[in-house]
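Explain this one:

_____
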Amino acid sequence: MSEVCVKVALRVRPLLPLEVLQNHKVCVRIVPDSTQVMVGSDRLFSFDHAFGPTATQDEVYNSCVQPLVETLLRGDNATVFCFGQTGSGKTYTFGGGNLGEKGGIIDRVAENVFSLLGEKKNSDGVETTVRVTYLELYMEELQDLLESHNTDKELFISKNDKGNTVVVGAKEIVVTSAEELLSIVEVGNVLRHINITGMNEHSSRSHTILTLQVVKGFPNSNPSLKSSCSSKLCLVDLAGSERARKGNKGSQHKESAHINRGLLALGNVIRVLADRARNNCNSTHIPYRDSKITRLLQDSLGGTAHTLMVACVSPSHHSVDETVGVLQRAAKARRIRNCPTATSTHTEAD
């Protein structure tokens, strides 16, 4: 079983107009013709991809996300997750609901998946179904964004018979086009917890997990059996980390506390997995069960998926402490090793 390392793409957003008016200084720069980033004058970090403020959505997608879509359609699991401080450009990068040139990762994945499936159908005739789930993790409670929040339904994180992480009770919808998929995402986004905070006028107060499951049916020499291959792509938009001193109060402070605890647990999992890879030791306990977000990402970090972390940062000197924290976690994530495997099943014909 071959191992692959988690890939990390760094994206530095431009200074915002208000930051320019307030004379914020740029303290984060991409080293020209490299995948390295310099913080201040003496801190250097290396990644698999590095995108500066002028990088387009196309550049980000084509360089590091599109290969994962091709991986998905070959039968392997894949994950893309956005990580960074609130207000660092994650929502713009991730997108959802815009098929234009500003469309983000979700929009381009939707187009790419169905375009490639159309080409493959014309060439091999394999029957393929795409199923979608869309979940939110808010205040450590899972909620289904494909159903009204007033439904009395509990969701459970579990392992299936293949050892993969699944959410029991999540609603699945079969989609047949990019437009249908993005319409579902838009409807789900209406139910998301989003609020104005001291750091962001459109702040996600929860983590979201959009999963595309591709199921392919193949002819079998034994007519009493059906052969199929199932793979999934998880698109995970993590809520941004927030410092208490940034001014959130009341319910927003409680939300921030839950977000930060989950991200701290994620940071601990990344650290343990990175240390295990560096020391070539497989016996170390990995604290996946310290939070629900780390349980949901168990297949993606040290598991069976091809994984890309998109780390988003602000260039402002006002955010340098948060930026360095994100870069340190992202640098450690590059050392994590996964063992991607294809899943095929044989079931009795009806």
Q: What stands out?
A: Residues 196-202, 346-350 have pLDDT under 50 and may be disordered. The chain has eight helices and 19 strands.
